[in-house]
Description:
- The chain is α+β, with helices and mostly antiparallel strands.
- Helix content is 58%, strand content 12%.
- The strands form 4 sheets. The chain has a 4-stranded antiparallel β-sheet. A 3-stranded antiparallel β-sheet has the order 4-3-5.
Amino acid sequence: MPKKSxxxxxxxxxxxxxxxxxADEVVKTINDAFYNCLKEIEKExxxxxxxxxxxxxxDYDLANKLLTGDEYKSFxxxxxxxxxxxxxxxxxxxxxxxxxxxxxxxxxxxxxxxxKQIDKAYIxxxxxxxxxxxxxxxxxxxxxxxxxxxxxxxxxxKDFHRLTIGEIIKEFERPWSGKNFxxxxxxxxxxxxxxxxxxxxxxxxxxxxxxxxxxxxAKKMDVSKRAxxxxxxxxxxxxxxxxxxxxxxxxxxxxxxxxxxxxxRTSDICRDLDHEVFSIKDAQAGVNYPPMHPRCRSTTAPYxxxxxxxxxARDMFNNEVKVDKSLNYKEWHxxxxxxxxxxxxxxxxxxxxxxxxxxxxxxxxxGVEVPEKFDKYQDLKYNGSERDKRLRSIDYTRRMKxxxxxxxxxxxxxxxxxxxxxxxxxxxxxENEKGLNKGRLxxxxxxxxxxxYDKFKREILLRARDYPATFKxxxxxxxxxxxxxxxxxxxxxxxxxxVAWIESDGKTHMTTAYITEVK
Length: 519
């Protein structure tokens, strides 16, 4: 083959991009199927609550009452009709078990109606994935044979083996990573079905209302939708790579070079394999041949010797750039990423994206002031000051301490008071220099002054409900308490404020407030 490795790598990357576009299109249609499934399930849950709820809380005992008379006959008829429509042996097995039962509750009837919607979504997914896998295998097989033909001077390759349907089906049945794609789909379906049933029962027992139950189910559906997308991309990567490998063997290619994507999203294992050369006979998916992991984006190309020219990489802003083709991933990373602090921050954002999303949700739920959008939160976390990051972490810890230990709540917090003289004659006006110094710092850091102290007062009383109070001893005036409260200024910067209180005769009032550093 006279063409150099540059040519093969370019063609391989073009095929890989086409494969990803095809997978994305299938994922969109599967997402639509999941959306329609969710809407139908929401209707079933609404009907369940409408029939068996009191004060918008599902009566679990009432929902568990058995179907009788015409209700049971109607259920049996619907079950038998559904069994006649279903070809899947996995679903038929469940339906056969259900059909042997002579006692069915209203709740189980709802589960059956929900199962039908889940089945519909997964049957569509199975058909869509199977069609995509067949197309990926055949298309890549033919494209690679054509490319090799062009490289060797044959614009039309006449004598090559045509893949038969029997050969393709045999590959479908191969458990290349422990299970074949069909087994994975039905396993995911069973997992979702069980999860939704468990969630609905849990919502009913806990007294959740209809809206809460629907929101909880929607979260479970979202997890399954993401799993479906991962399955599509991973299986598509396997079958497209398999088509390529079969073409290599058919056209007499001896060696291939592993080609990873030059960007921050590439996995460690693919980074290590980039530009490694292997014998065709030793190729094994998950070992030295794509896909190496779920959603793997790596590809391969026939190896014909040293590479010249450029290859495509992506910069920190995800723009395509050209770099020396002889660079493998580690060399590219050292030259372009490790030498640029900003690039390293972007890599850290990507590596920590999952834990950062969880942290953001925890902070939001606890009441910590953070940006609404995830990208803005990561910008704040990795480009903001270490002090601000530490104070937000402390804010979360304090709020959770009170939630986990409600006995630490400030006594009489809902009726606590603050005398206006604390602002008009101590912090922001008057002759007490110690108080005025505290007020000046509050104005500088938080923007509160004699002109708007009412806002500061309301904010103190509001935030006092979210933070634990520490008992500091007893004086002739009553019991002393302190709270360390995090405020946020107009620039969303956290500021630590110590607020002191006195509690006596069932009443609590503030004695002072001032900014202090956290030790």
